[in-house]
């Protein structure tokens, strides 16, 4: 039992060990009289009143006094009287108590509030929460991709709305959509795009014209109309016209070794109202590089240097910035992603003599879906980076460090499983407005040398989609996964293709 100590007169006190004083809950306190009803049969009054209007009605010393005693209650039987002053309740001394009583809780050494806050902000929980928030992947939508399904080559090669390129309508029937993403890069942005189809050719020309592109790197076989509908003639002196809006004439063709061909084109926009209706367009075509395959590193490095030289001599856009460079393969994510990353790293090596490998890869993958989806492509990118470092003198060619780095990367290929045959279903190049588009298998993917039994992302750790179903068509050739549905999450990895192992 708690002990209540009260005094009948000043200086006099009486202890009643049998008197248990227990305050009721705070909501039972009368807010006007500030009198507390006790379970032992009496009421208290007095104390410090925060209301200045009630100050004259307080007891002189702001003490706590008995104001009412219920007859035949424990307080009455204990001899408690009105106006008795309560000195201590539950072993806590009141403000005017002369009885020294110390609570055991006061012996506990508490932490200073300032020290507590400083600890949190300096290196404690606040920092941990901030790091956790930074780890969380930003949400990415594909609402544009699902709205214009007829303009997409593949049902499962989605386009993130964040970082996508928007076209400006110029005529009735023009849309703002094209399957292309824009990535910042020193010396001019990079545009990663899928190859044009027959019914998206005008959109491809609009992309080139509106973004003021003067250099294109094409990684697809230009002879295959299904993988890339021809947007220029490959013989000098010939021209192609599209719907009376654009005309592209081939001025010159120059071969650079066996694997690179440079085309100089002139593109004309009939809808352009300004005097300058014609521009020079350079196309660098890399021959023989199949999707998801490694390639001759020297050819890639040479193509990077050619692209850089053409961009350097090309005109700048109106605001004084360098014009963007367009890179495309068939889907615009596999070879295109490797070349774009290698180009960015070459700019970093020349500019700062150091690279941010993981940071740049993460930024590109946040914008362009499916980049470096195979481990073999990541290893191939490392080979290109090492070659660029050796060429610029950052690493001495033929040195022990150089040879050891190359040997380590080549050894990584042995950790990659044998490639799987199969391909991604592709829409036919039929125009819009017809019946359901026929689907076929992209045979170029059946030549993959390096597969990936364990793709580069865990299930459920990829971007979140807040959108309607993409197409509703399943890509059975790549694991039978359907296009992303509403509120579904798709990871960074793409479905694996089914088929015989090579």
Please tell me the overall pLDDT: 74
Going by CATH, the homologous superfamily of the largest domain would be Protein tyrosine phosphatase superfamily
Uncertain stretches: 1-38, 90-100, 418-425, 428-502
Total number of helices = 10
Q: Write down the Rg.
A: 39 Å
Strand-residue proportion: 15-25%
Principal-axes shape call: elongated
Strand order of the biggest β-sheet: 8-9-15-10-14-13-12-11
Describe this structure in words.
This protein has 502 residues and is of the alpha+beta class. The protein has 2 domains: 4-101, Pdz3 Domain (Roll), CATH 2.30.42; 143-482, Protein-Tyrosine Phosphatase, Chain A (Alpha-Beta Complex). The chain is 24% helix and 17% strand. It has helices at residues 74-77, 113-123, 125-135, 143-147, 201-210, 297-313, 335-352, 357-367, 375-392, 400-412, and strands at 4-7, 14-16, 36-37, 42-46, 64-69, 85-89, 92-93, 180-183, 190-193, 215-218, 239-242, 246-256, 260-269, 278-286, 325-328, 425-427, 439-441, 474-475, 481-482. α2 runs parallel beside α3 and α6 crosses α9 (375-392). The N and C termini lie far apart (86 Å). Residues 1-38, 90-100, 418-425 and 428-502 have low confidence and may be disordered.
